[in-house]
Write a structure and sequence with these properties.
alpha+beta; Beta-Lactamase; six-stranded antiparallel sheet; about 35% helix
Amino acid sequence: MKKEQAKYSELTFQAIVESTPNAIVLVNKEGKIAYINNQTERLFGYARAELIGQLVEVLIPERYHHNHPEFRNMFFTTPTVRAMGAGRELFAIRKNMTEFQIEIGLNPVITVDGTLVLASIIDISERKKAEERFRLVVEAAPNAMILVNKEGVITLVNNQTEKLFGFERKELIGNKIETLIPEKFHGHHPDHRNLFFTTPSVRSMGAGRDLFASRKDGSEIQVEVGLNPIETPEGQMVLASVIDITERKMQESIIKNQVKLEAKNVELEQFT
């Protein structure tokens, strides 16, 4: 009966692993591949028989071979469900020696043969290419472009932003967007941001209101801001396009004053 249950569990496990859309690689403590699914064969270009029993380093570029066993041993010391290499870029290598960028989820699996690690592998090469194209488009924009997440943290700026605000890129990324807003508006801005993310849409910011931004040197400028919601792997963000309209507003003010002055002169002439 126990043998039948074990066999049933094994078949169920295989059926689940084979049906998953990701490449699945099961590895033991010695780093040897114990099982792979069909998606792994497709992704890496190996037949199953070529990988079973091989060290998992066969799927890793040679420059990482030296450190990988140490990382593997660390995982088995405190096995937990987690992403591999958090904060680092990960690469894999196919049978034809082409490299590609990946994301890996690690999951410890208890078996009769001891603890194994189930690695779920996703090819993110196309996503990374799309992200790079997005960065190039943002960088080439004639306006200051600022990408902000739901928490109000700046994740991307372009060269025009550096020029307009006087900050270096590294001084802005990771900091709150309020860095670029005069202090007198700090209290209300998070509420406006939260409201935008509640019903995100392409629109102008602060329609009907005068908007101001603050440079690194403390000087204020009048701005127009266009908001565009962007879906990213890290969640929804907003891409803000910022235009300095200080000079335009000054010219408009001069024209208004001239019109008022001319109107007063006409009134005075009528009384003379």
